[in-house]
Amino acid sequence: MFLAWNELKKNKLRFVLIIGVLMLVAYLVFFLSGLANGLASLNREAVDKWDASAIVLTEESDKSLLQSTMSIDEMDAIQAGETAVIGQINAIAQTGDKKANVSIFGIEKDEFIMPDIIEGEEFSAANEVVAADALKEEGFGLGDKLTLSSTDETLTIVGFTAEARFNAAPVLYGDLATFRRIKFGDAAEANGDQINGIIVRSNSLSNLAGNEELEVIESETFIENLPGYTEQSLTLNFMIYFLFIISSVIVAIFLYVLTVQKISMFGVMKAQGIPSGYLARSVIAQTFILAAVGVIVGFILTLLSGAFLPSAIPVAFDILTMIIYGFVLIVVAILGAVFSVLTIVKIDPLKAIGG
Amino acid sequence: MAILEMKQVKKTYGSGHKMVEALKETDFRADKGELIAVIGPSGSGKSTFLTIAGGLLSPTSGEIWINKQDLSGLNEKQRSKIRLKEIGFILQASNLVPFLTMENQLNLLDKVKKGNMARNERMQLFEDLGISDLRNKYPADLSGGERQRVAIAKAIYSNPSIILADEPTASLDSDRAYEVMELLKSETKNKNTTTIVVTHDIRLIHYCDKVYRMTDGVLVLDKE
Ligand SMILES: Nc1ncnc2c1ncn2[C@@H]1O[C@H](COP(=O)(O)OP(=O)(O)OP(=O)(O)O)[C@@H](O)[C@H]1O
Ligand SMILES: [Mg+2]
After folding, report:
1. Is B2-223 CATH 3.90.76.10?
2. What are the pLDDT digits (tens) for B77-90?
3. Does the keyword Transport apply (chain A) (predicted)?
4. Best A272, A281, A347, A351 residue to mutate vs chain B (most B CBs within 10 Å)
5. Residue to mutate, B12, B18, B19, B47, ligand 1, most ligand atoms under 8 Å from C-beta
6. How far apart are CA A32 and CA A42, in angstroms?
7. What ipTM was estimated for this complex?
8. What pTM, to 2 d.p., does this model score?
């Protein structure tokens, strides 16, 4: 620590530059993790909101809520602690010149997936809906009459709920009758028992479904099968993993260049009998200081810039993930220093001092 | 009592027709309390002799005993330990760490070794070498002579049993050079250690108990 610290003090500029580079790498990692997290919640918020253990869909729907259709009577055969039915359809909602892609959920008001209202009130009359607060940010308000792309029905926003997006589209919650009128139009009466899926809360998921044609899908599996979800998160996570590798290589190169420059100095100290182990520890300590400072500054900068970002950019920082990534960055930087340590161990003191 | 003993030590560089016999077969011994000078022309093998004596360079053949330990069978790590404990080097090239202040050059030794000089001894050493005012300066901010004196302070500071000095007075004016020799002499006598000084400057040799002359790798006793 003594050597490491004194050298940092003496060569401030050099080390500030290295810290700067590490900071930028950390910034990028944190930002990407925020983006990955934000994009993920864009897709899954509404599902997380259910706080359910699984969803029951038809086998042939291939884990897609939209493609699954069943009769509400299927619910009777399901042996679970709590159940909730859901009907779902996508639409474009418009009021005035504002347009938005929305996902419409038809639900039963007294079942557990009924969302908490943060503004306004629950839907009660026909064609009343509770909207995701994301719509509010886009300029929609209480009392807005929404025309829909696929039907003549108009919906009225009577309340808002927080964090309710499904597959990137803000959700409109209404009752099952409203949902059926939108989906089936004039044939709504004839399809009076149609729903898309049954959401369950249960401790045990085995032999839940009473019917061969139904499939019980755990919530996490269901989310992973949302269109584009897995592809997106894989892409971003790969970028993050590559950044880890890149930052380790950058640190390795920087420290190696620094070490090579100091070979004669290390030689002098080794000639004096100062153990290689002491010198190696000092390089490691130095790397730790550089990486830790870089990561911490990057961390603060990320949170600062996150606060000033327009809401259209879907970043959501998860502090725990960031702390883990920060640790990984520091560990990876120290791995990069191992190269330099090997060099130091190999220095022949005599050659180094040119005696 | 012999603190340093070399038996049939030889050093050759390179091989074939490029081979240089830098040190021919040499027997040498230094006792406690002795201040020894090695003189000789440039390229004659003085530095080679000194670095072998200090365990920095392995001889081609022969044995070196430092304080009753045979260096021959030791690896670099073990030799490094002996250097730290027994030897104070004052090298021909600068041997200061560029990013440490004068004071910290010595503090570094405190980090890795016990038995260095006490606080007041250290102050006295700085005083004797005329470098008390330079304590918080970096090597780059010093003159060549000042740097040399700090290097001397560093070598003496760890209370080694052998001080090996390669041209310690090269960049000093004669008054300073005499003072440095005085200092080395009093260290040697007071602490009953051994000092070997390689020098070009024959005016300094009357400080020494023995003078060896090196010519083309052959070491002969010149004056006792
Ligand atoms: N690493 C080396 N490889 C090959 N030859 C070397 C090496 N080091 C020294 N020599 C040769 O060995 C001989 C002795 O060199 P040495 O450095 O011991 O001389 P010196 O007496 O200390 O000279 P000076 O007074 O100039 O310092 C010289 O001829 C030199 O060229
Ligand atoms: Mg020499």
Report:
1. no
2. 899 999 999 999 88
3. yes
4. A272
5. B47
6. 15
7. 0.84
8. 0.79
